[in-house]
Amino acid sequence: MHVLANSLVASALALASAGAAWSEPIQVKVFVGSMFEIGENTGDRAGEYQHWYERYWQDAEANDVPGAFAPVHCNDDGVCGSVLGMGKVNASASMQAILLNPDYDFSNAYYLITGVAGTPPSRGTIGDVAWGSWLIDYDLGHRWAPEEGEPGAPVFMPRKGYEDYRVHQLNPDLVAWGVHLSSDVDLKDSEEARTYRMRYPDEAAQATPSVKVGTHMTGDTFFHGPGLSAEAQYMAELYGADDYLVTEMEDNAITQVIKRLHGTDRIAAIRGSVNFDQGNPDETTLQHLDPAPGETAGGFAETVENIALVGAPLVDHIVSEWETWKDGVPEAPKND
């Protein structure tokens, strides 16, 4: 009888030990956050997540996280990712739910915020991928109708109290690593995008896609037109940031959520430009917002592929050199 009892106890302890091992949180090395997927995660038209999924999580199980927009995927190398949802509230709520979930240990994790964006034709073109050096919240402050102010003057004024979260400067060393590791990436382009660029007289707009660095402007409003584009640049200068390079909807908000728990030193953000933030000289802003069939920019499929092509070298390098990276970002590589 005692032998049977001892055997049962031993079996129970073994099961408990195995259960404890299974319940250990996943040690996240890099988390990749995208904002939307068009259909399935693989096998159809790619949105922001599909190329990442096909690269890292084809064989991964989907883990539902309460409060998150979509399941989280992780591979055996500690690379995890999820679709966070579009807009500041949507994406930041998902990020917080994932960060606080006990299935994951983010104590040494790096973050790569990814997605599509718009760009001013004076600084970028369709297919570009821009590393974010600064992230600015476009919505925090005071605005008024242009006719209610001085003619030609800005219609935005910062409001006191938002200083700690309206602007984030990302770690320059991590940005430099991202740029360095993606400097030789061969970016994709399309005939449709090449043709569409020629509608704009700007040299930057007509250029072939490239990797850039600059300010990401986060706003829930899809602002369009030269006036609001100029206002975004005004805000970047007002806050002492780099030139406004892309407009998107989530980066600053996601960064604020991560900052409260883990700081900002390990956050990188990349955005691929799929549209210009204003019309060409021969169309009005409303015509640009509602193009006729066949009049869209093109290049979307190539741009979402470019985003993964540019960001993956940093993800892979961090994982393969984890002993060097786990305690913090190494000194930035020297320019050749």
Automatic annotation (TrEMBL):
Keyword Repeat: no
Domain of life: Bacteria
Keyword Signal: yes
InterPro entries the UniProt entry points to: Nucleoside_phosphorylase_sf, Pur_nuclsid_perm
Xref: Pfam families: NUP (PF06516)
Signal peptide bounds: 1-23
Keywords: Signal
Protein's name according to its UniProt entry: Purine nucleoside permease
Organism listed in the record: Paracoccus benzoatiresistens
Higher taxonomy: Bacteria, Pseudomonadati, Pseudomonadota, Alphaproteobacteria, Rhodobacterales
